[in-house]
Specification:
The chain is of the alpha/beta class. The chain has three helices and five strands; from the N terminus they run βαββαβαβ. Strands 3-2-1-4-5 form a five-stranded parallel sheet.
């Protein structure tokens, strides 16, 4: 799966505690997209300084299919969002469903969960 030249990567949730996620994930030439519902967190999202293509979206993870094509992402990082913004079981379920829609068949999903 990861022999292709370019990966499409999505980082969901951008805050100061995860500010290096979008910078460090992937390789030069990959497309890295970030999304956060809070406009002030844009500073922690995608930054072209890391020689990767992509952009930042100000929006809800519950509406990923509004911003991205179906079957697009190879890797999705969902870090620090469940319990810190997407709180209800129903919204968490909806988030996983929409992640499935925008993910390729053999994609990878990494969920970071913090109970503190």
């Amino acid at each position: 799966m990861f022999n292709q030249k370019q990966l499409n990567i999505l980082v969901i949730g951008n805050e100061s505690c995860s500010k290096f996620d979008a910078v460090n994930i992937g390789n030069i030439g990959d497309k890295v997209y970030t999304i956060d519902i809070n406009k002030k967190n844009s500073v922690y999202g995608f930054n072209p300084i890391n020689k990767k293509d992509g952009y930042h979206v100000i929006g809800s993870a519950l509406e990923l299919d509004r911003y991205f094509e179906p079957n697009y992402f190879d890797i999705i990082l969902l870090n620090g969002v469940f319990g810190w913004g997407i709180n209800s079981i129903e919204d968490q379920r909806k988030t996983i469903e929409v992640i499935y829609k925008v993910s390729k068949k053999d994609s990878k999903l990494l969920i970071g969960w913090n109970v503190n």
